[in-house]
Design goal:
Layout lengths: L1 H16 L1 H14 L5 H13 L3 H9 L15 H16 L2 H5 L7 H11 L3 E12 H13 L4 E6 L6 H15 L3 E7 L8 H9 L3 E5 L19 E4 L3 E5 L17 E9 L2 H17 L20 E8 L7 H12 L3 E5 L3 E2 L2 H12 L3 E7 L5 H16 L3 E5 L3 E2 L3 E4 L3 E5 L3 E2 H6 L2 E7 L1 H14 L3 E3 L2 H5 L3 H12 L5
Helix pairs in contact: 2-3, 3-4, 5-7, 7-12, 8-9, 12-13, 14-18
């Protein structure tokens, strides 16, 4: 006790006496030593001065940048990718693509942008299944796993140790015994509830597992931001899955808090599978320090044409020079002539997106936005509700999905094109997380996705202007406070 009195307490008192000076130093670091958007800077300053000292600790965990350094290397396959990009750029410039692929007519500028900035080649031989129910998704996935002959590559943001994952693991262990290679890449933050001992059990059973941005000392996560939010499965480079479903019992509607889980996932066959395979291998190589590109079997060409669906696989992350998925959305909004349909659990757009949607609505484009009726993250939900108010003011049709929880993430434009995947319509997905989306060209597929949206409207409540204006003072205060923090959410 004497030691505490003589040494520790004076140190604490000294910190308290100089808290203003300490906070000023921290503020200078935020303003002058990190290149951030002005809105983000002001939000962090609000945190620093609202909760001194602790605010800077939060900043160290969630606010530091990775300086756009390139995390993922394509050196081993750069020639192959570059040649495909060059050929498609030539095709667009000389208007050959429009003649050969009528579904991309009117969108060659978007195809060109995605080629240049994301390295996203377009393929036209794909077969696409749109999945909106978790039970259906996992049943299809298990069937495809059982059919695997060479390898199974799995990448998820959230995996929980429950009956959903256990059912998958049972099949994976069977495949390992048959000689199939199985790899699981998981995000340390999203899978923090699973003990390391369980991953060791899986490795002992022959399943390779790797952590993305692992915690320090097993529990301390120094990167709350910059998480790998992608959900990808690739089987034999023949079948791939990508979309919103993670792996846990709530995704099949077994969590009483959320009820039915409404999400969107894509099952793909065709050349686009190779693009998702490359994305997985890049992520795996970074996290494992291995080099799967040395084995050409992982990138073997498709055995036959699977369909005629045209798509580009777009990746983005904090290491990207451009916000590829966000800019893809911006271009889609700008090109909309009749309608825009958006589904997202979190609607916290940056100024460019909110301005583009507002201009579209005022220009006579029918803008429809669907969000959940209940929050899974309260701060994010009330910030979302605030921005929904802006869109209602602009004349957009805004809805809450009442039949459980809405987790689908995407946009449909003019019944001609859609972009769905892992990215929410928020700043975190656009700037801070590693995401992957599919942009799909074609009236058939876009029409199917729009019809799914319209079917969801049966379970929605429209947020009219009068209803929004009647919200309580408590909700208004929550909205405004959370909106101030929106650059950080």
């Amino acid at each position: 006790m004497d030691l505490i009195t003589t040494k520790v307490i004076p140190v604490i008192q000294h910190l308290l006496d100089n808290i203003i000076i300490i906070n000023i130093i921290f503020s200078i670091i935020v303003v002058f030593f990190q290149r951030k958007e002005p809105k983000s800077v002001w939000a962090w300053l609000l945190i620093l001065y609202s909760i001194p000292i602790l605010g800077f600790i939060i900043y160290l965990l969630a606010g530091t940048d990775i300086h756009k350094r390139k995390l993922f290397r394509t050196k081993e396959i750069e020639d192959q990718i570059s040649e495909s990009i060059r050929m498609q750029e030539y095709s667009i410039v000389h208007r050959q693509m429009e003649k050969r692929n009528p579904d991309v007519s009117g969108y060659t500028d978007l195809v060109y942008y995605n080629l240049k900035c994301s390295g996203a080649v377009i393929s036209d031989d794909n077969k696409l299944d749109i999945i909106t129910d978790g039970n259906e998704k996992f049943a299809m996935l298990l069937d495809d796993i059982r059919s695997a002959k060479h390898h199974i590559h799995i990448e998820y943001y959230i995996i929980k140790k429950d009956e959903v994952f256990e059912n998958i693991v049972k099949e994976l262990i069977k495949k390992v015994k048959e000689g199939v290679e199985v790899r699981i890449l998981y995000d340390a933050m999203g899978c923090r509830t699973i003990p390391q001992s369980y991953w060791r059990e899986l490795r002992h059973a022959g399943i390779e597992t790797v952590t993305f941005f692992p915690a320090v000392m097993k529990r301390l996560h120094l990167r709350i931001n910059y998480r790998n939010h992608r959900k990808i499965v690739v089987i034999d480079n023949e079948i791939a899955y990508a979309g919103g479903f993670n792996v846990a019992r709530e995704y099949i509607g077994l969590d009483k808090k959320f009820g039915y889980w409404r999400d969107t996932h894509l099952r793909i066959e065709g050349s686009a599978v190779n693009d998702l395979q490359i994305r997985f291998i890049l992520d795996w190589n970074y996290a494992s320090r291995q080099n799967l590109f040395k084995n050409t079997a992982y990138l073997k060409p498709q055995s036959s044409v699977k369909g005629n669906c045209e798509m580009q696989i777009i990746s983005s992350g904090p290491d990207s020079a451009m916000q590829n998925i966000r800019n893809n959305y911006l271009r889609l909004i700008a090109k909309a002539e009749k309608s825009i349909y958006i589904q997202t659990p979190y609607f916290i757009p940056d100024d460019a997106i909110i301005s583009a949607l507002t201009v579209a609505a005022y220009s006579g484009v029918e803008v429809n936005i669907m969000i959940p009726c209940k929050p899974d993250h309260p701060f994010v939900y009330w910030a979302t509700y605030s921005y929904i108010g802006d869109m209602i003011q602009a004349g957009a049709n805004c809805y809450t999905y009442d039949n459980g929880f809405l987790h689908a993430k995407g946009m449909i434009v003019d019944r001609k094109i859609f972009c769905y995947g892992t990215a929410n319509m928020d700043i975190r997905s656009f700037q801070l997380n590693f995401e992957v989306n599919a942009t799909v060209y074609g009236e058939l597929e876009a029409g199917m996705m729009e019809d799914i949206f319209k079917d969801d409207l049966k379970y929605c409540t429209r947020i009219t202007r009068s209803r929004y204006d009647r919200r309580s003072l408590t909700i208004r205060v929550r909205e405004q406070f959370c909106r101030l923090l929106s650059p950080l959410l």
